[in-house]
Amino acid sequence: MIQLKSLREIDAMAEGGRILGRTLATLRAAVRPGMTTLDLDLMAEEFIRSHEGATPAFKGLYGFPGSVCISVNHEIVHGIPSKKRTLVEGDIVSLDVGVKYDGFYTDAAETVAVGAISANDQRLLDVTRESLEAGIAAAVPGNHVGDIGHAVQTVVERAGFSVVRELVGHGVGHGPHEDPQVPNHGKPKRGTKLVAGLTIAIEPMVNAGLPGTRTLPDRWTVVTVDGKRSAHFEHTVAVTEDGPRILTLAT
Fold this sequence. Notes:
This protein is an alpha+beta fold.
């Protein structure tokens, strides 16, 4: 069931989203070779909890052990933070964070470079971010979920990359995952119609190679089927009469 939000509820989500945005900014500035993914996870949890009333939304969610899903290189999503996983120069690392604040959930992600990365990897990051921006621009009343997916897919495939199809964006707000699903591919004017008050997580997951995925034996980490690299960017967005409102900005 789709749960539309009032302006007051959207404003409350934006408060939590601001904490989330600042969490990602803190992690982005901290990422460097030699850090472990657990270092980043602990840093994020401490930062989130330093804001009264804010908690890491992913901690314990469905049994997930960390506060941040941290996925490196060919890992697409849901990587488990570990003191045994050390970042090295040239890695790319996806940081997927959720915050619960004032009873509302927000969700965002960013893939960042560890030191200097290759031109191809930088292009993968740039295209994935551009596809997110295109998806957000399509999140207006009167459009459909398919318009968002089509916008993302067009940017990605034009660049020669592929969209992950087994994983999708989603509604968010009262719960961490709500209806509707928001795929990163689709056809215009298909799927759920977008109306003011809808709050959704738009999250392109883009592979340098094939779109296929597989899940590691830990039953969490999803990786590319061909071992090529993947990037992930995400914002929580409110559909409003004035256009899309990004709720997970740092400012």
